[in-house]
Amino acid sequence: MIKSLKGHWEEFKESKPGERFKDRYHRRQQEPGHIVKRVVLVIFGAILAVGSLVTAPLPGPGFATVFLGLAILAGELLPAARLLDWSEVRLRLLWQFVTDVWRTSLFGKISLVVIAAILASGFAYFVYLLLFA
C-alpha cells in the first residue's frame, strides 16, 4: 500500500502545474473500481471540505483540511479537479509576486505585513459577525 501511495504521489508531482488534478482525475477514472467506493469518496470529500470551512476559524488544522477534502473530490469530480488546477496556478503566481516584493526592500516587507494584518483582521471580523452577531 505504501508503494502504491508513493507511486501515485510521484505521478502527481511529475504532472505539469495546472494539469495535476485533471491528470489525477483521468487516471482515477480508468482504474477499475466499485461505484460504491466512488460515491463514498465523494460524500467523504464533500463532508470534509464543507465541515472544514465551517470549523476553519476554530483552533486546529483549519484550511488545510478544506484542500484535502477538495483533493479527494478532485479524484472523482472533474469540476473539482479543474477548480484546484486553476487555483494552483493562481496561488503560484501570487506566491511568486509576494516573494519578489519581499525581496525588494524594507518597504516591500512592511507593505506585505500591513496588508496581511489588514486581511487577517478583516477575516477575524467576518468570523466574529458570523458567530456572534
TrEMBL record:
InterPro entries: Uncharacterised_PGPGW_TM. Pfam families: PGPGW (PF09656). The chain crosses the membrane at residues 35-56, 62-85, 106-131. Keywords: Membrane, Transmembrane, Transmembrane helix. This is TIGR02611 family protein.
